Amino acid sequence: MDLLKNVLADNDYPGRGVLWCTTGDGTTLGAYFLTGRSPASQARTLHRTSAGALIVAPSDAREHDHLRHYVAARQSPNWLVFGNGEQVSTVADRLACGQAPLLALDGLDYEPDPPIFTPRLTVIADNHEGGQAWFGAARHSAGDRTATNRLTLHISDLSPSEGVLMTTYHSNGQEIATGAPFTEIRTTAETCGDLLDELWSALPPHLRIAAAVFTPRDLAGSSIRQTSRTRA
Length: 232
Hints:
The structure is a single chain. Helices cover 15% and strands 40% of the residues. By secondary structure, the protein is an alpha+beta fold. It has one domain: Glutamine Phosphoribosylpyrophosphate, subunit 1, domain 1. The chain has five helices and 16 strands. A hairpin with a 3-residue loop joins strand 6 and strand 7. The relative contact order is 0.25.
């Protein structure tokens, strides 16, 4: 496994990303981050609502865009759901109706933003079962098919310092492509604060928008970091 900081440092434009990992002190954590190139993408905030959800919102509330602005994380007594788009609310609602994680992740589609067709990335974490998580990725085919490729991945029993990362994009500095289906990583972080530091420092400074690290059952206690061009 490669170190998280090296995987991100080798990616000139990761886009949005989801991470599930266990730090050196044995704490299981989730993380979500945003990077962006356009002024509209960079003019966003990541903040908590009064209900404890995490919201990606425009700096100017009059400029809502359903692809850029969405609920990024929600929790219930049983589940934590986080990801890069409006599907987070869909999946959380399905879980609340009693659907199992694999069914809750089924039927999702990639974003309608040609030519890259951004993947929709979603993580469901079980609040009770010792760090179990299900990743879902709705991806466009590498060919001409318009039908969605749907990947699901079940993660359990992570050892300290292990994790799984998904990013929407990968770039070599010249071309942008859809990110790898998933990457297993190692983290040098010992604590939640360390993980946020490691994640933030590895993202391209000129593209960073926001990042959050959180524990299951305590989304309201998320640690959030944002660039100075966005409001806290």
